[in-house]
Amino acid sequence: MPTLFLFLRRLLPVALLALSAVAPAHAQSSIAARTGPASTERITAELVSMTASATPGSTLILAVRQDIRPDWHTYWRNPGDSGGATTLSWHLPEGLEAGEIVWPTPERLPLSGLMNYGYEGVVYLPVPVAVPADAVPGERLDLSVTALFLVCSAEMCVPDQLELALRLPVGAADQRALETPHADAIQAVLDSAPRPAGLEARIERDNDGTLTLAVTGDALKGEGGPGPVYFYPFATDVIDHAAPQTGTWGPEGLALKLRPGSRPADGPPEPIAGVLTTARGAYEIIARPGPLPEGTSGSGALDSDAQARGGFDLSALLQAALLALAGGLILNLMPCVFPILAMKAAALARAAHDPREARRDGLAFMAGVLVTFLLLAGLMLGLRATGEAIGWGFQLQNPVVVLSLALLTLAVGLNLSGVYHIGQSLQGLGEARLARLPGGTGAFFTGVLAVAVAAPCTAPFMAAALGAALVMPWAAALIVFLMLGLGLALPFVAISLSPPLLARLPRPGPWMDRMKGLLAFPMYATTLWLMWVAARQAGSEVLALGLLAGLMLAFALWLWGTRQAGAGRWAVVLGLISLLAAGAALAVAARMEPEVSAASADGAEALVAGVWSSAAVEAARAEGRPVLVNFTADWCVTCKINERVALSSGEVSEALAETRGVYLVGDWTVRDPAITRELERHGRSGVPLYLLYAPGQAEPRVLPQLLTPGLVAEAVRDAGR
Prior knowledge:
This protein is α+β, with helices and mostly antiparallel strands. The chain has 19 helices and 24 strands.
C-alpha cells in the first residue's frame, strides 16, 4: 500500500474528530424535521429505534443502522492497523442521556499486510438512551445524531458525515411499547455483543517479548474445546494485529500467543482489555500482569480461525508471485550470489557439449534451489506461527549457522583448488555413477548452496513479495517462495535447455582446470566474510573457535586428498580426529551467547549514527528534524555496499548537516524482534530497508534498496525543506 495512502488513512480519524467539534450545537430543531435514511455513494445510514415509543423512567434502545456498499467497510472501536472508529455526536431533548455504543463483534479485514477491524454489509450500532421519569406521555421527542463514518475500500478512504434524525412519542408508563421492524435485528446484536462473563485473564511477557494471554473460567470449560479463538484488543498499539494468534486449550481455559505491537516492551506488560471471541460466544476481558494460571494447555492446540483467512485474494497471490519471480531473477545479479554464479558458469562450461548432461544439471540445480526455498519457507512460517518474530535471512542471525556456512564454502573452495576430489575414493566400488557426484548430485547441492548464500540479499521486488507472503495462508505463501526460487534458477535452467546457447560455449580443455582453481578464491572470500559476520554477532572468542574449526576441517580434507592419492590408513584416522575437533569447536561456539551492542541513540548528534528505536525516532521528529533510518545487518552484502557507496559519502553527510538530520541504524545482525516488527509494518520481511521521516509527515518515505549518494542527499534535503 502506498505510503501516502497509509498516511491519509491515519490522518482521517483526526479530521473526523475535528469535523465533529464544529458541528452546530443548535442543529437539533432543524435536524428533527429530516427523519429517515441519509446516503452517500458508499453508505446509507438511518437512526432507528427498538420500540415505537419511549417509556418514562426506562431505557430507550436506539441504533444507527449502516448499509455499506459492496467492497467498502467501516470500523470497530479499535480500527486495527489503520482507519478510524465511527463516532456519534448526539442532539437530544433536555433530560435524555445517551450511553456508549454497544459494539458488535467486528470482522477482520486484512489488506496489503495490514489487519483492520470493522464491518461490511448491514450492521446496527445500538446505543442505550436514558429517558427521565418526568417525561410527559404524548410528548414528541426529536432525537438526532451526527454520525461520522470513515468508509474505506482497498483503494481509498472517505470520511462521510451524515445527519440522522428520529421522532418518537412518549408512551404511558404503564403500557408496554410496541416493537419496530428493526427490533429483532437490534436484539440480535445485543444478545451476541461481547460482555463480561466472569473470566479470569492474565498476561505475561516471555523472554523474547512475545505476550502470553491466559484466560480461565466456566464459559471456556467443556468437551471439544473453545473452537476458533481470536483476541481483539481495545487499544491499537498493544499487539501486532496482522500476526497469527496461536495457542493451546485445557480443562480450565486457554492460552494465546500474541506478538506485541508498537507500545514499549520494557518491563512487565500493562493490563490489556479487549474482546475474546470463541465458538461459544464473545467475552470482554481485562488481562492483568501476573503468573499464568494452570489448566490452559494439555488438551490440544487451538483451532485456526477461518475468518483470519477470509481476506485471501487470488489477485494478491498472482501479484506477489510475479514480484517474487522478478526478484529471483534480479537476485542472480546481487553481490552475495556472485560466488555461486561462478560455480554455475564452470558447470555449464563442463557440460556445454553434452546436451543430455546439461539438461540433467540444469534440472538438478533447479530442484536444489526449489527444495531449499521450500524448506526455509516452511521453517520460517512455522516459527512465525508459534509467535517468533523472524524474517527472511533469519538463519544467518545465528552465529553457529554462519560458521557452518563458512566451513561449507571453505570445503567447496578446497575442492575447487584440488586439495581433494569428491567421489574419487568411491571408484573402487565399481560403480562409475558414484564417482560422478559433481554431476547431477553436485548440481543439486550447488542449488542448495546458492539459496544458503543468497539469503543475505534482498533484491528489488523481492521485499514486497515476501512481505505479502508472510500474511497469506501457508499454501499461498509457499507458492510465492517457490516462484522466488524459480526466478533464481531460471537463467541457468534456460541456458542448460537451449542447445544453440550451449554450442557457443568453448569446448572443455586444460583451461577448465585453471578456471576451476580461479573460482576457488570467491569461495575463500565468502568464507572470510562469513567469519567476520560471526565475529560481529558473537565476538572474538566465537571467531577464534570458527578459525580453529576451519583449520581442522582443512586439515581433514587435505588428509582425505592424500588418502585418495594412495596414502595409508593413518590419514583416515587423523582426518576423523580433525573433523571431531572441528565439530567440538562449533559445539562450544553454539553455547556462547551473542554479543548485543550497548550503544545508545540518546544524545546522538546529527552526523553520528545512533541506534534505532521508536523512541529515538519520535524524539528527533519532536524537534522538527528529518530522520534517516537504515535497517541493516552485517551479513547483508547489499546493505554493506549501500553503506560504503552512498550512506557514508560526503554528499549525504553534507545534506544531513544542512537539514540538522538524524541518522539512525537498526542492526538486525543478531535477532531483534522490535526491528522485525518494524520491517513487517512496512511490508518487508528482510533488510535492507531505508526510511526517511520528514517533519510534519506521519509516515516515512521508503527509499529504494539500491542507493546512490545523490539520491539519498536529494531525499534528505527535500525532507528538510
